[in-house]
Each structure stands twice: as structure tokens, then as C-alpha cells.
């Protein structure tokens, strides 16, 4: 018998008593604004560069907690100071969002990365809910409009690919848009919301999800929607596919489409089974759908976000459908994740393990890992477990 109350308490406590205080106390730059994300095991800063993805994600995370958990002033203050830093330094004046900045806010890397835009829109959209600040709302809306304009060529003039030879479309953007559209729905007109939701669902569930490959999700397709027999075309990122499925479940709830939820649950189970390391446990980072050697040298590592996103999709799938396989897999992934990623001596969690499950980078944050997947995952699992326990009462 599963003790859902104990699990709910565990995820809630880990979020509010361990992970959130770590970022609140260790990451804020009181001198220049924004956040340090390159933090060692104890939370000491080892590099001061600021990455727009992670700055915006932290603004979103603390605002989300303020909006949905408790109106704590220190959470909102943390979010606002980060947003003001982004507003002042994060873009070129026309809401083209840089990739990274110096500590003081000088641009380091040009706005080539569309996800700087998506997370900025998420951050300012969530903050506009908390503050009713119209300027924040306008930043989110304008950024969203630019994302829609850039969808066909997200990297713009910074695209390294030679045009016309191998035009591939990536899963990443429709995946993140599935979540972003719900996040800022309050700022968009109904027609834009419905059209974008429909396009995202179609691309994720009808194009990148491939029945002829056993129902797995691929990372890249030819621009006509066919499979590409290349490194990029054979690439499978199990964590990406699994994360997308809880976005789709949320859309299924929002649109009252139980068949969509069921399909997302089925795909979650397929992807977890596909990506699971039968020898050492855990979920692989990258795979090749033909079984060839992947080009990514880190392909067999076990990463924090892959496992946390899998936990969300599995427990949400169980909550929404009662599918016992989701619960069985949730327990399995939960045991692996809490055993290997949680630091037993210091707050926050490790991010990078080798295939055998040993820590290979002794950090709590860096260029890619910040205040996002661990706290968001703990929150989402807590909320799903909360709903399950209420159902049982």
C-alpha cells in the first residue's frame, strides 16, 4: 500500500525547507541584481556570469510559489529584483533576449537562443499576475509575439546550418510552447490561445510522436515531417519526450480532452521504458533510435532534470487516470532519484551522474542547472500527491 500522505509531506518539505531556502539565500546578487547560478556543493559562487534562461526561470519559480503556495514577501522581492535586472540588461532594447551577461549585466552572447525568449515570457507573465504591473505584462506579450514570428527560424541570423541542404525542425519549441501558452494564457486573446494550443498538440502528438517507432518521441524531423536518417534525425532525448507529456496532460485537462490525457500517459510509459538503463537503472540522457553510437559524448549520463520531469509525468498520469503502471514506475524512478541526486549533507540536489549513478560534477548550479527543475518538480509532485490524497478521503 502506497503511503501518499508521507510522499506528499516529503515533496512539500523538501521544496519549502531545503531547496527554496538554498536559492533564496545563496543565489541573489545584492550588489548588481539578478542571480548567481554557478554554485558549488555548499552554495558558494564559483562563476559570476549570468545566463538568461536561468535568470528568467528563477523569476518565474519564486513568483509561481508566491502566486500558488503562499504570499511570502521575500519570494516576491526575490522575483522582482531578478526581473528588474532582466528588464534593464537582458535584451537589446527590442526584447531580443541575450543568452548570457556579465555579472554587471553587459551582453556576452547574442540573442541566438529562442529559449531565452520563452523563459523571459514565462517569467514576466507570471510576475504580471502577482504584481498587476502592466509593464511586466507588456514585456511578456511582446516577447511571445516575437517567439511566434521566429518559429520558422528560431536562431535567425545566428543559425549555423547552411540553408536548404538539411532543413530540420526541432521538437523543443512546440514542446515548450505547449507549456508557455498555458502559463501566459491570461495575457493572450482567445483566438491566439486556441490556435497555438492546437498547433502544439498537433506537432507534439501527431508529428514528433512516431507510431511506426513504437510510440517514441523523436527530437528532429525533416521540415516535411518525415524521419531523417542522420545523427540529429535519429536522436532520442527520453527526458524531453517525458516532460512534454505532462504539458500535454495539462492541456488535456484545460481542454477537457480525456483521450489526449490517455495518449500522453501511454507515451510517458513508453518513453520511460525505452529510456531506462536496464543494467544500472536511471534514464539515459541521449539515445539513437537505430542503436548507433550517439554523437553526444554525455549520452549515457543520468541528469537531474530528466528524472524530475519523469516523476511529474508519472505521478500526474496516475492522478489523472489511475493507471497502476504510472504508480509502479513513479516508485521506481522516485527511489533512484532520491537515492542518487539528493545530497544527504547539504541543501539542493546534484545534477550530473555517470551511468553507474555516481556524482561527476560536485555542483548545485551552473550554466544549465539553476532554480527550476528540482523546485518545480517537487512542487508539481506535491500538488499531484495532494490531489490523490484528497480523492482518497
What keyword list fits this structure?
393 residues; Glycosyltransferase; three-stranded antiparallel β-sheet
3D architecture notes:
It is a single chain. The chain has 393 residues and is mostly helical. It contains 13 helices and 14 strands. It has helices spanning 4-26, 52-68, 73-89, 114-131, 134-150, 172-183, 190-208, 231-234, 238-254, 258-275, 304-321, 324-340, 373-392; strands at residues 38-40, 45-47, 50-51, 100-101, 107-109, 168-170, 209-210, 216-217, 220-222, 235-236, 287-288, 302-303, 352-353, 363-365. Helix 4 packs antiparallel against helix 5, helix 4 (114-131) packs parallel to helix 6 (172-183) and helix 10 (258-275) runs antiparallel to helix 11 (304-321). It starts with a helix and ends with a helix.
The percent of residues in helical segments reads: 55-70%
Query: What is the distance, rounded to the nearest whole angstrom, between the alpha carbons of the first and last residues?
Result: 15 Å
Largest sheet: 3 strands, antiparallel
The overall pLDDT average reads 97
Low-confidence stretches: none
Range of strand content: 5-15%
Spatially, the strands of the biggest sheet line up as 2-1-14
CATH fold call of the domain at 170-361: Glycosyltransferase
General shape:
globular
| DSSP E strands, number | 14
- CATH architecture tag of the domain at 170-361: Alpha/alpha barrel
CATH class call of the domain at 170-361: Mainly Alpha
SS field, number of helical segments: 13
Instruction: Write the element-wise H/E pattern from the N-terminal end onward.
Output: HEEEHHEEHHEHHEEEHEHHEEHHEEH
Task: Find the structural class using helix and strand composition.
Answer: mainly alpha
Radius of gyration: 20 Å
Amino acid at each position: 500500500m502506497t503511503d501518499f500522505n508521507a510522499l506528499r509531506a516529503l515533496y512539500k518539505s523538501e521544496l519549502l525547507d531545503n531547496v527554496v531556502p538554498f536559492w533564496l539565500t545563496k543565489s541573489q546578487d545584492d550588489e548588481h541584481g539578478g542571480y548567481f547560478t554557478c554554485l558549488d556543493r555548499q552554495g558558494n559562487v564559483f562563476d559570476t556570469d549570468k545566463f538568461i534562461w536561468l535568470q528568467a526561470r528563477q523569476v518565474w519559480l519564486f513568483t509561481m510559489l508566491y502566486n500558488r503556495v503562499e504570499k511570502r514577501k521575500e519570494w516576491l522581492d526575490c522575483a522582482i529584483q531578478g526581473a528588474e535586472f532582466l528588464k534593464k540588461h537582458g535584451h537589446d532594447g527590442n526584447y531580443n533576449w541575450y543568452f548570457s551577461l556579465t555579472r554587471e549585466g553587459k551582453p556576452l552572447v547574442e540573442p541566438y537562443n529562442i529559449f531565452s525568449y520563452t523563459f523571459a515570457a514565462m517569467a514576466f507573465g507570471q510576475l504580471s499576475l502577482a504584481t498587476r504591473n502592466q509593464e511586466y505584462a507588456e514585456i511578456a506579450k511582446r516577447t511571445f509575439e516575437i517567439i511566434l514570428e521566429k518559429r520558422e527560424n528560431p536562431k535567425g541570423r545566428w543559425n549555423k546550418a547552411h540553408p536548404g541542404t538539411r532543413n530540420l525542425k526541432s521538437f523543443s519549441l512546440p514542446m515548450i510552447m505547449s507549456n508557455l501558452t498555458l502559463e501566459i494564457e491570461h495575457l493572450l486573446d482567445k483566438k491566439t490561445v486556441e490556435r497555438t494550443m492546437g498547433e502544439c498538440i498537433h506537432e507534439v502528438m501527431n508529428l514528433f510522436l512516431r507510431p511506426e517507432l513504437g510510440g517514441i518521441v523523436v527530437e528532429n524531423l525533416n521540415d516535411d515531417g518525415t524521419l531523417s536518417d542522420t545523427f540529429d534525425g535519429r536522436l532520442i532525448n527520453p527526458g524531453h519526450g517525458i516532460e512534454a507529456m505532462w504539458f500535454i496532460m495539462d492541456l488535456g485537462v484545460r481542454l477537457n480532452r480525456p483521450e489526449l490525457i490517455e495518449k500522453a500517459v501511454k507515451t510517458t510509459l513508453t518513453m520511460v521504458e525505452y529510456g531506462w538503463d536496464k543494467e544500472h537503472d536511471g534514464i539515459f540522457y541521449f539515445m539513437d533510435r537505430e542503436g548507433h553510437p550517439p554523437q553526444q559524448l554525455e549520452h549515457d549520463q543520468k541528469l537531474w532534470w530528466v528524472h524530475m520531469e519523469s516523476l511529474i509525468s508519472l505521478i500526474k498520469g496516475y492522478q489523472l487516470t489511475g493507471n497502476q503502471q504510472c504508480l509502479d514506475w513513479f516508485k521506481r524512478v522516485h527511489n533512484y532519484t532520491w537515492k542518487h541526486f539528493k545530497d544527504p549533507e547539504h541543501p539542493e540536489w546534484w545534477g550530473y551522474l555517470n551511468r553507474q549513478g555516481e556524482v561527476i560534477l560536485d555542483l548545485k548550479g551552473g550554466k544549465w542547472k539553476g532554480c527550476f527543475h528540482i523546485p518545480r518538480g517537487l512542487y508539481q509532485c506535491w500538488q499531484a500527491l495532494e490531489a490523490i490524497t484528497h480523492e482518497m478521503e
